[in-house]
């Protein structure tokens, strides 16, 4: 009698306790494809090579993740402003797009441990030197909309500085080349590409520093744990450092939280 009561109680509880939702990592493995948001107009993080194929630091990291998951990769070129909406809507599984960690963004999405640390710098004509934000008063400064560069420049700009926003890094850089802005605030890595394109343009000063991480949806600790493990293992094998040397020219120390 007691056994029947216990069995009945267990069955009743099972009927009212919701089944555990499938982790994103299980969904991806079953699907056989991981959808990764990248920015192909943000060299050296993301670019299109001479064979018209996606390449760059972020793209290379994404491919290693797909390799170690044992799945194919679908690289989705997106904009800085659409990174979070495309992630939370389910269009993307993860975002690897020079994605800086901020407390505000962490209200909406989750971040892994860092896979690179970069700086936000001001780039302008060498014959018009600037050493601080005060020197930009009265100037039009270009940034990529909703990027960390936008956040840093907007926070630190003084009254009288005009912030001109563009949809992606390629357009922001082109505005500088065309003389439509006095200078731009961009990542240190992208600043090197700008200088290579036009030797008359130089990095003038550092605006801020930013640790970068992989973005994913919240409330999925299993996916977060796997990605953090993957970043750790890529460091342990030296593959992450090799990509840093290839694309950034040097290795960087990666903080964890």
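Sequence proposed for the structure above (257 residues):
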């Amino acid at each position: 009698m007691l056994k029947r009561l216990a069995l009945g109680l267990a069955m009743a509880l099972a009927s009212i306790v919701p089944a555990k939702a499938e982790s994103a990592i299980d969904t991806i493995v079953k699907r056989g494809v991981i959808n990764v948001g990248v920015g192909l107009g943000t060299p050296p993080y993301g670019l299109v090579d001479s064979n018209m194929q996606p390449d760059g630091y972020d793209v290379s990291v994404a491919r290693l993740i797909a390799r170690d998951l044992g799945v194919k990769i679908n690289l989705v070129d997106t904009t800085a402003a659409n990174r979070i909406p495309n992630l939370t809507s389910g269009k993307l599984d993860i975002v690897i797009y020079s994605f800086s960690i901020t407390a505000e963004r962490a209200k909406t999405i989750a971040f892994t441990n860092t896979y690179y640390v970069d700086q936000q710098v001001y780039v302008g004509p060498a014959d018009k030197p600037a050493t601080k934000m005060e020197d930009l008063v009265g100037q039009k400064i270009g940034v990529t909309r909703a990027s960390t560069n936008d956040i840093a420049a907007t926070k630190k700009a003084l009254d009288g500085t005009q912030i001109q926003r563009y949809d992606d890094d390629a357009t922001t850089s082109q505005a500088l080349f065309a003389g439509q802005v006095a200078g731009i605030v961009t990542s240190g890595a992208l600043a090197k590409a700008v200088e290579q394109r036009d030797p008359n343009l130089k990095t003038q000063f550092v605006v801020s520093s930013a640790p970068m991480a992989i973005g994913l949806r919240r409330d999925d600790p299993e996916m977060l744990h796997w990605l953090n493990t993957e970043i750790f293992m890529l460091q342990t094998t030296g593959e992450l450092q090799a990509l840093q040397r290839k694309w950034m020219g040097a290795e960087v120390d990666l903080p964890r939280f």
